[in-house]
Structure to design on (287 residues):
């Protein structure tokens, strides 16, 4: 019953929001506009999903405990003050008509509880970019555009020397061709949870690379802070979040979410047993 009441309230609130009865001052570029901006400029990117908004409100995530320090830091980044460090948020404020049913309900619920957080901290002087750039498969009802979108995404790091900063089980590009367009790939492997607590060590490992490297980050909430620090030091850095998962689902034409076997391999021995020799050869730092 509680769930049903919440869904009804979320639907009513979103109807009022969509019709402009509840004020909407937040603007978000489309996924294609976001991809084109990353493809045709050297801008860096930091992404906010639902989890980061929850943390600004003081809530915990599964892999990151909340703290006032994290909440205040995320709120500051969300204000989007740097021209060449684009900030992405979910493009959910004008319509959810292109979303599949489960996704529509999820984001309606999210806005029911988090709308005021967006309104409080988002910069009215900016047009944000779309977080769905790294989540461009699962949410869509019609997925006919996804292949072309991923083809353009893969061109962003074409012939670039890439450094992946990721958790122990993430395995970006392992078992698929997401990163095959890159000239080279090296990896910094971070703790699977509370990566924010190891931020100084992760940053130190990243600073061992020259500024010609393109950094791709998949370290949860810590990626937001790491992206800002690397950007300020002259690196190009893209917070790609769970893009690899979405790409796997796209390649498999999965109708919904599915488990990925590679996420079970954690540590050097498990990766060797799984046959991930190329992955192991790319790992330069274990933290």
């Amino acid at each position: 019953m509680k769930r049903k009441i919440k869904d009804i309230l979320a639907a009513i609130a979103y109807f009022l929001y969509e019709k402009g009865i509840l004020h909407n001052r937040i603007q978000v570029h489309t996924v294609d506009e976001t991809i084109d901006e990353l493809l045709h400029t050297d801008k860096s990117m930091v992404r906010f999903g639902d989890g980061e908004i929850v943390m600004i409100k003081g809530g915990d995530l599964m892999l990151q405990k909340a703290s006032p320090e994290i909440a205040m830091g995320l709120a500051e980044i969300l204000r989007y003050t740097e021209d060449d460090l684009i900030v992405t948020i979910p493009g959910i404020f004008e319509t959810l008509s292109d979303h599949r049913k489960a996704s529509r309900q999820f984001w309606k619920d999210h806005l029911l509880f988090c709308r005021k957080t967006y309104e409080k901290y988002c910069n009215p002087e900016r047009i944000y970019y779309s977080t769905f750039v790294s989540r461009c498969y699962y949410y869509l009802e019609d997925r006919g555009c996804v292949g072309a979108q991923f083809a353009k995404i893969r061109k962003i790091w074409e012939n670039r020397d890439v450094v992946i900063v990721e958790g122990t089980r993430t395995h970006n590009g392992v078992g698929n061709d997401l990163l095959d367009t890159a000239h080279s790939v090296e990896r910094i492997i971070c703790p699977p949870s509370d990566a924010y607590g190891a931020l100084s060590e992760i940053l130190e490992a990243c600073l061992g690379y020259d500024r010609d490297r393109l950094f791709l980050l998949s370290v949860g909430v810590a990626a937001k802070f790491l992206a800002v620090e690397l950007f300020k030091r002259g690196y190009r850095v893209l917070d790609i979040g769970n893009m690899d998962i979405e790409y796997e689902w796209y390649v498999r034409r999965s109708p919904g979410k599915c488990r990925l076997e590679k996420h079970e391999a954690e540590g050097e021995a498990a990766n060797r047993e799984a046959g991930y020799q190329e992955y192991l050869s790319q790992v330069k730092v274990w933290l």
Q: What stands out?
A: The two ends are 46 Å apart (CA to CA). The chain has a mean pLDDT of 94. The CA atoms of residues 217 and 239 lie 5 Å apart.
